[in-house]
Each structure stands twice: as structure tokens, then as C-alpha cells.
Amino acid sequence: MWPVLIFSDSSERGASLADVIGALDHRICAEHTTDLGSLAHLARCRDPFLALVSTDNTPLALRAVGALRREQRDLAIVTEVSADHPLESLQALAVGASEYLKRPVAPWEWQQRARLLLELHRRQHALTSTLKRQCRLASRRPEHAVLTEALARADMLHDEVTGNHNRRTGRIAGIIATSLGLPQQQCRNIAFGAALHDIGKIGIPDQVLHKPSRYDDDDRKVMRAHPRIGYEILKDGGTEVLQLGAEIALTHHERYDGSGYPGGLAGDAIPLAGRITAVADVFDAITDGRHYRQSITPEQGYVHLRQYRGTSFDPDCVDALGTCLAEAARAKGE
């Protein structure tokens, strides 16, 4: 069964929403409560993949979201906020909401959002189970072989562009780590781990991942799930490099000033490997181009990154890229 928790200050509203969500799939077990204490207990005991918070009382909704997030770090939480008070949206995200809907929220809107998150959960569950099983089988083999299999699977499930970007990012991350003066073995581990930074994208629907134009807000919400998906895939891999890969997958979209996701970490709270990979990832992406954007030269890419030195990116990592820019540029062509 797939547990879903629903919190509302109205028993009638909670029960109605449980019926709407339960109709999506017979494996969904939707449970509702009006009590914050019970909500925290259910979050601990039921291990839900999704929680919905539906109430017109915003302070109560924020307390409910906060209680859920304290109990479950990886839980998808959707709440509702006022359409007339933009600050409520920021408050909801700050206390731990994954996303929000603006009031008034119709039942079909709850169902549509839950359907999308259910599809992500299905994909993540299937892919995580497969890759964990393969990682366990390969845990006694050299780490390079395990990583090669994982990357090959990511390439197979999506496309050559994604796979090539992953590998280039790994090479560039290793070069930046070397420029920072890290030990040789740590640099190698970062290079291989960073090559898995986007492996969570194998859990993102193809229509979003391969969209030929810029993402809209809904697309971005879906894409923001890939760091946690990647972390879940790699965290039990059984090797040092896969453990580092899990850390990188989870943190490569964190930003130095705390404006990133999924954890809103800032500064040195972001693991060094994640900070290095963030620079390598963006550098490769902007110098390789996309369907909706032309590529720029490595020199132009570095100038662009320097604009965000100390805000989006660790200043030391940006400076380290600058000292090895020619080598990083060559790595893109290997």
C-alpha cells in the first residue's frame, strides 16, 4: 500500500479529499486527521510518500507542514495558501512544504497534483529497487564498474545528451577538486561521484525532461524532485564512491547563499563535493547549450559564473575553475 496523509481542520473536508485521492489508485491508503499530535504520530508510523494540508487557517497549515517535515525529511508535502498574500507562499516553503496550491483549491486540483506526485513515486520506487539490487550485487566489484553500470543505465533510460553531460560534469568536478589542492584519491572519488549527479532524472517523466522549450512553473516543480530521487537511488549502494554520489546528487542544486534546493543549505553546510559539482554542472551546461539556448565559450562561461561568486557558488570553487579553465575546457571535448 502507498500511504497518503491528509490534514484538515474540517473532518468533512478531510474525508472528501481522502476519497478523491484514493480514487487515483487502489494501492493508495489515504488517512485524514484534524489533530496535529495525531498527524506527527501518523507521519512516523505510516511512512507516507505524500501529505496534503488543506485548511483556510494559514497559521495552522504552517504548523502542520512544519510538524510533517520534522518527522519525515523526504516526504512530499503539498499545502494551500492565500492567492492574495504572496508571503504565505514563501512561509509555506520555508517551513518545509514541497509545493503549494492557491486558494480556492478545487478537488480536481488536489487530485491532479497528487496524480503527478504518484507517478513520480511509482517511477522512483521501481527504479530505486532495480538499481539498489544491482548495486548490492556489484558491491564486491571495483567501484569503477559499479559506476559504469549505473551511468550506462541512466543513459539507456533517457538519452545521450544527459549521459554525456553527466560524464563531462564528473571530469570537470575532478579537475576543480585537484585545483583546490584536495588529495588525489578524494579528487578521483569526486570525479566519479559527480558523474552521477543527475542520475535522479531517470525518475522524471520524459515529457518534462525532454521538453524542447523552457520549463514553466509546473515543470520546475517536477524537476526539483530529481536530487532526492538520485539520493534514494545511491544512498545504499555499498561503496564509498556511491555514498559520495548520493551526497552530490542531493546537494548539487544547493546554493551558497541558501537559495537552492532541496534543503536550502548555505555556505559550508553544503558538502564540499556538492559545491564543486554545482560549479562544474552549470559550467558544462551553459557552455554546451540547450534546445532553447545557444552555447557560449568556456571563457564566457567562467565570466558568467563569476557574477554569482559568493551568492550561488562557493567563491573558492569558482576561483579554482578559473585557474584550470583551459583543462576544464579540454575535458569537455574528451
The CATH class name of the largest domain reads Mainly Alpha
Q: Total helix count?
A: 16
- Tell me what the CATH architecture of the largest domain is: Orthogonal Bundle
Number of domains: 2
* CATH fold node name of the largest domain: Hypothetical protein af1432
Number of extended strands: 5
- SSE order in H/E notation? EHEHEHEHEHHHHHHHHHHHH
Overall helicity:
55-70%
Assigned CATH superfamily of the largest domain: Hypothetical protein af1432
Beta-strand share of residues: 5-15%
- Give me the secondary-structure category: alpha/beta
* Rg of Cα set: 21 Å
| Gross morphology | elongated
Commentary on this structure:
- Helix content is 60%, strand content 8%.
- With 334 residues, the chain is an alpha/beta fold.
- The protein folds into two domains: 2-119, 3-Layer(aba) Sandwich (Rossmann fold); 141-333, Hypothetical protein af1432.
- Helix 11 (226-234) packs antiparallel against helix 12 (240-251).
Distinctive features:
334 residues, alpha/beta, Rossmann fold, Hypothetical protein af1432, 2 domains, five-stranded parallel beta sheet, 16 helices, 5 strands, 8% strand
What's the structural blueprint in terms of helices and strands?
Blueprint: E1 2-7, H1 11-22, E2 28-33, H2 36-46, E3 50-53, H3 58-71, E4 76-81, H4 86-95, E5 99-102, H5 107-137, H6 143-157, H7 160-179, H8 184-194, H9 206-209, H10 217-223, H11 226-234, H12 240-251, H13 272-288, H14 298-306, H15 315-323, H16 325-333
